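mind reviewing this stuff:

——
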Amino acid sequence: MKIAAASYPLDWFASWAEYEAKQTAWVSEAAGQGADLLVFPEYGAMELVSIAGEATAADTQRAMTAVSGMMPDANALHRDLAARFGVHILGGSGSVIDDGKFVNRAFFHTPTGQTGFQDKQIMTMWERDQMGVVGQSPLRLFDTALGKIAINICYDCQFPLLTRALREADLILIPSTTEAAYGYWRVRIGARARALETQCVTVMSSTIGPYEKLDLLATSHGGAGVFCPPDTGFPSDGILASAPQNQPGWTYAEVDPAAIARVRATGVVRNRSHWPESEPMATEVERITLR
């Protein structure tokens, strides 16, 4: 399969038609390059707030409420694009009101018209303190025509136990938003570590650039990447593709699902299958004082 991961700048739209045109152009470009799976970033859907106007965007809670109200239309658009171009699409996540609370939700669409979603599990300090977004389970594993796919939204990829629960996944999609280089590297390092531990392919997408009218995304620093276990059948550095930081566009990588199965079964190391051996060791710590 061919994967397209987005380094995605948010835009300000005067109308829904402009948003639709942008999404169609991005999907058309990736499909034209032969991509089977398109991965947009965390909070990529927040650019929908522009349609509600500057006054709404200036108030975080009003902005999040407005985006939640437009997510059904965004999903309908992405379902149509997935079917029209014959691709799988992870749409940019956005704020969604669920049972009276805000969650950070990413929707996954197939060419056959099916849609699933994953909520972010663990919130950053900004999401907790400034946005009031809450984590919501469960983790989900999607059985698709491309293989088993899971989603760790940004910060979630920095918690190995979440990925361990998704160890059947062939692909882990990691949509992200980070405001500075520190955050970009945290997510990138997390994505690479999870590929090593789970012996799978991880796909990182990022928002990039300024979006000054919306405080929570005033600036983004990032770059897409596709990572793998550094083992037989894959690049020795564990990098299938890597975008320059803060440059908009798609980053492409060819992925052979059979190579994932082979490295899990016959790789030089077997992190995924040997994980249970580490569990009892991690619960028994002998404390020794040497002063």
Remarks:
- The longest strand covers residues 201-210.
- The chain has a mean pLDDT of 97.
